[in-house]
Amino acid sequence: MKNYGLYIHIPFCSKKCDYCDFASFCMGEGDQKAYLNALLKEIDLVKDSFKSKTFDTIFIGGGTPSVVFDGFILTLSKKLFSSFKIAKNYEFTIEVNPNSFNEQKLNEYLLAGINRISVGVQNISDKIINGVGRLQTRANVDNTFKLLNGKIKNVSADIILGLPNENLSSVKNTIQYLLNQNVTHISAYTLQLEEGTPLENKVKKGLTTIPNDEAIVKQYNAVNKLLSAAGFIRYEISNYAKPGFECQHNLKYWNNVEYLGLGLAAHSYLNGTRFWNTAVFGEYIASISKSELPKNKEILTNEQKRTERIMLNLRTNKGIDLKKFSQEFGENLLETRQKQIEKLKDLGMIEIKNGHLKIAENKFSLSNAIIMEIL
Ligand code: SF4
Question: What is the mean pLDDT of residues 266-295?
């Protein structure tokens, strides 16, 4: 039996970025206190159901977890460790944004048992970052890495490709900068132009432009080249790590391992069923105060599980374990999808090695089309 993962959502930010449609709000200490109390109560409401389970990853994500008032994270962590069985070799991550991170927070996180920090860098150019309404400056980013240096070994950075004004050289500069900071993990996501966001409006009105697909593929290729030369492995479509520094928590999502999500809009996957909490702040607080879990649920059909397994497994560099897949779904993919698999193999797009079917490393940029073909 695999150990579980634990995700806690912190839905607060200092300011909404122009491209963001996540569940996050700009709220003060009063609302943050109400939210912390609700989180502590949610833990009390669920903990008995997890008495026999062990968690080996904890991930505090957002929003921006580093904006909450001092003491919030330590109180939360104490509650987690006293309510759930946490494995000795746990991975405990918190996401921070450079403009709300400081020495006091770092000390609080160390006391809380946090051993992995994920920094929202996106790009190191102030012009690019300010252009999408993010508050941070390059000086904030420098200060964040200066503080982390030597204090935490497992440091990840998020970058976004395809931001307005982002070109190949600004992406390369950002990667080189991060390598100089000795980060052990980089997540590189492509900008998604979400409907109704200020950035989408600006693009629609022609007030700004974003790089086209061809430019983004070039940016990805540059990221691949620099990171692979520096000894990083692309272990998932958007994630690169030095060997041994893969994010154990995120691997659970891609490998169908169960996880519990706490807090506003948090998702859980337990016993083949997906649960998710309301994304409405007032509803979350009100429901927990009545001791009701604001969880919606969906029991996955076998067909949905099959689709998810193929899609998520193929995102990773390990691919689909064909034996496990056949045990779970009673389907030998090499037979049922023989024609498609042969074709993709002949085109050099997939590989079958050691009982695993995976996307060829240099074809990750075509993953959507390859996955659709195999489904
Ligand atoms: S910091 Fe992250 S969660 Fe907050 S508004 Fe910006 S993109 Fe959204």
Answer: 92
323-340, pLDDT tens digit by residue?
A: 999 999 999 999 999 999
C-alpha to C-alpha distance for 246 and 86, rounded to whole angstroms: 19
Hey, what CATH topology would domain 302-374 get? Arc Repressor Mutant, subunit A (1.10.10)
For residue range 31-73, list pLDDT tens digits in order.
999 999 999 999 999 999 999 999 999 999 999 999 999 999 9
Determine the residue of 24, 95, 158, 187 to mutate for testing ligand 1's pocket, defined as the one with the most ligand atoms within 8 A of the Cβ atom: 24
Q: What is the CATH number of domain 4-254?
A: 3.20.20.70
Q: Is the peptide bond before 63 cis (omega within 30 degrees of 0)?
A: yes
CA distance 310 to 367: 12
- CB under 6 Å to ligand 1: residues? 13, 16-17, 20, 22, 24, 62-64, 97
d(CA 117, CA 168): 27
Atom of ligand 1 nearest to the CA of 13: 4
Ligand 1, atom 7: closest residue by C-alpha: 20
State pTM to two decimals. Answer: 0.93
Q: Tokens at residue 297, please?
A: 């649920």
Which residue of 21, 22, 25 sits with most ligand 1 atoms within 8 Å of its CB, as the best mutation to test the pocket?
Answer: 22
pLDDT digits (tens, 9 = 90+) for 4-30: 999 999 999 999 999 999 889 999 999
1 has a pLDDT exceeding 70: no
Chain region(s) in the chain for CATH 3.20.20.70 = 4-254
Contact 50, 56 (CB under 8 A): no
The token pair that represents 131 in the structure block: 């252009």
